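Repro:
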Amino acid sequence: MGKLVTGVFKSRAAFEEAIEHVISMGYTPEDVSVLMSDETRTKEFGIEPGTKAAAGAGIGGAVGATLGAVLAAIAAAGASIVLPGLGLVIAGPVAAAIAGAGAGGVTGGLLGALVGAGVPEYRAKAYEKALREGGVLVGVEAKSDEDAIKIEDLFEDVGAEQVNRE
């Protein structure tokens, strides 16, 4: 198994470029985990919580089918997990891990959820701060060490912050 590569994106353009490159490497939208606040989802992507906006052809046609699929997953009502003090939107494999964190995640807010999902506490604190400031956290489980290095370099090249490979 490869390594998890994560990075925080401060702009929609950087996020989209990273996702497009990851998909071009042979990954699918289901291989990509995305975390952002409801506020960021609305502001950056024009997707109101609880709507099916991304399910229509408009999003897919505007930004490409693969990115449209990722955004559709983000916009889906079932992908929203509300944690105390922060409406958090989660899509991808990490959603199951955070949901599996159970009550500890709910009572401990985002920090508790991330730690419960296996993110080291010091990194979870930095991610929590970045998400509150409008960042988008993206994670990809690389299929090989070589891919992990490529994805890490890609994230850094497009301007991601807090890029980590574990």
